[in-house]
Amino acid sequence: QVRLVESGGGLVQPGGSLRLSCVASGSGDRLDFMDWYRQAPGKQRDMVARISFDGNQWYADPVKGRFIISRDNAKNTVYLQMNSLNSEDTAVYYCKGHTIWNGRDYWGQGTQVTVSS
């Protein structure tokens, strides 16, 4: 079993930046992919960014050029640097890890990001 814990959310003004962190602990399974998702009130949960174990990245169109996903495999941690934030980025942000060998997904509990003046 893998446990994921997010941190770094909060209230930020439009145009500001935040960095989210997600630390994995538990069974020691390698998380081949680590993703960030977000869910705004009344909306579905959407993937924001993905990073593979060896660092390949993918971004959803709304965040391209503003968000950067990275990971430190030695620390079992994935980060999401969020820049030029706007009100549409307001959501609960979730970390997800995926292991290829058993096809399992692991979710964190989420961290709230609010962009408001």
Major sheet size, sense and barrel closure: 7 strands, mixed
Radius of gyration: 14 Å
- Form type: globular
- Given helix and strand content, the structural type is mainly beta
Helix fraction?
A: under 10%
**End-to-end Cα distance:** 40 Å
**Which regions have little confidence, pLDDT < 50, spanning 5+ residues?**
none
What is the number of strand segments?
11
Beta strand %: over 45%
The whole-number mean of residue pLDDT values reads 96
The ordered H/E elements are: EEEEEEEEEEE
Number of helices: 0
How would you describe this protein?
By secondary structure, this protein is mostly beta strands. Helix content is 0%, strand content 56%. Strands 2, 4, 5, 6, 9, 10 and 11 form a 7-stranded mixed beta sheet that branches. A 4-stranded antiparallel beta sheet has the order 1-3-8-7, with no helix packed on it. A hairpin with a 4-residue loop joins strand 9 and strand 10 (104-107). The mean pLDDT is 96.
Would you spell out the secondary-structure blueprint of this structure?
Blueprint: E1 2-7, E2 10-12, E3 18-26, E4 33-39, E5 46-52, E6 57-59, E7 67-72, E8 77-82, E9 91-99, E10 104-107, E11 111-115
Parallel strand pairs: 2-11
Antiparallel strand pairs: 1-3, 3-8, 4-5, 4-9, 5-6, 7-8, 9-10, 9-11
What's a quick, concise take on this entry?
The protein is an all-beta fold and 117 residues long. The protein has no helices and 11 strands.
